[in-house]
Amino acid sequence: MKTKAVVYAFLLSLCFLNTGCFSHIAAQNDAAMESWVGHSEGELIAAWGPPPFVRDDGRGGKVLVYGGIYQHQFQRMFYVNPSGIIYSWRWQN
User: Fold this and answer.
1) Are 26 and 74 in contact (CB under 8 A)?
2) Is the pTM higher than 0.90?
3) 3-state secondary structure of 93
4) DSSP collapsed to 3 states, 29-92
5) Which of 78, 80, 86, 79 is nearest to 29 (CA)?
């Protein structure tokens, strides 16, 4: 019985640890994405390479989509205005 309690406590601590790590990674990713706002599409492509997907943003610009080739894969999206400047971003998993 005591072994079950120890295993349960260990698994529970792993869950809390994992949640904390994800929050830290998410914050770092947010900062990295935000740093591109105001930069040109060309600068982003020079640093990251061409995106696998480009979509219309519905405002005359486009959305550069990195990742997400497979279902349930992490995606980073940069919104580019008609002048070629990144004005927003988002990511999803």
Assistant:
1) no
2) no
3) coil
4) HHHHHHCCCCCEHHHHHHHHCCCCEEEECCCCCEEEEEECCCCCCCEEEEEECCCCEEEEEEEE
5) 78
Give the closest residue to 78 by CA, choosing from 66, 92, 93. 66
Give me the architecture of the 2-92 domain, per CATH: 2-Layer Sandwich (3.30)
pLDDT (tens digit per residue) in 34-81: 999 999 999 999 999 999 999 999 999 999 999 876 656 789 999 999
Q: 72 burial class (0-12, 13-18, 19+ CB within 10 angstroms)?
A: exposed
Average pLDDT (23-40) is 85
Two structure tokens written together for 36:
């591109």
Q: Strand 62-67 relative to strand 53-56: parallel, antiparallel, unpaired?
A: antiparallel
| Distance, CA of 40 to CA of 13 (rounded, Å) | 43
